[in-house]
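Sequence in, structure out.
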Amino acid sequence: MTTAIDTTSSGGEAQAGAAPAVAIRNVSKTFRLPHQRYSTLKERALHPFRSRVFDELRAVQSVTADVAPGEFFGIVGRNGSGKSTLLKCLAGIYSVDEGTIAIAGRLSPFIELGVGFNMDLTARENVIINATMLGLSRKQARDRFDEIIAFAELEEFVDLKLKNYSSGMTVRLAFSIAIEVDADVLLVDEVLAVGDAAFQHKCYQQFDRLKSEGKTIVFVTHDMSAVERFCDRALLMEKGKPVMVGRPREVARAYNQLNFAGVIHEEVEEGRRGDHKAAEIVGAWFENDVWDEVTSLAQGSFCHALFEVRFHEDVEDPIFGYAFRNLVGQTLMVATTQFEHPRTGSFKAGESVKVRIGFPMRFGAGQYTLSPVIARQGSGADLIDERENLATLLVHSTIATGGLVDLEQVLEIHRS
């Protein structure tokens, strides 16, 4: 059961001790999946009992959590973990089978961007209709029309029918309308997974604004950098069950370990033949020039990339290294101790070490991932452990040159 409580928060940060803006109590949701689907009445008449056989998909199982007023709360998990189903239960799209959900204040779901658009109408007409559907009055929609179109960068296409829009243009328009809704609690599902890098950056800026205004936001995503940047706390789900609720970095680390544990486990089982893993990479993160942990950096600032290794047996002169990759998987930089620093030392079982490398951040604006690795001395082919995309970093800049990197340079013009 989902109920709305007629109270609102006064803005600012999450209010300790205040009644929750969103209260989730032992919520479960199960779907019944028939073994046989019929497309004609004849098929149903010939097989009247076959459709009575069902499988049950327990999408959400006994989830309990509170979201405080003004809190930015993340819900993360792998595909099929139940996070989007839980969000749709919060929105009232799905009824819950067990438990209760209480929402304090006015709710605005940003779950299916563009739902309600009429593709045979122009952007101008769709803005008024869609904004009204989301809770604005017609006057408010008209008053905010120019701002919506400007944010979407669609001034030249405002009288074009939406069926002639690209998917990216449609997404920009939908999000621009959604952020104009006056609501106390916002539900957002994977908004940053769509659109180009420049538009995603504008979405980040809008999240900063909404957070500063004290909006309560429940945010479903796969993007751990977004979780660490925006969220005050996060819930990790797996196979419909809650795994943990905690600080963003702790949840992000647990998510990455959960996401890559199966691959690493298979690699280790294949190579160790009854022996235990000699060492494991337990975490990775970034720091700025004053050693503060960060999830975003300005282009040109100094960056420290770190990862932590825990040894389970004695290892002599292991090779430490990592790769930096962009969102499309291109490797932009590799660092390793193999050639410049081959003698890394002796490490004892039970010892933990942090590996750090610093460099000026010259990557172009965008999102990047860190993949650390540790190998035995030699060619580097004898891997002890590696973790793909274990940490993420957003690089922002006031200019966009279009290059993968923006190096320091000297440009001169000489008249002949």
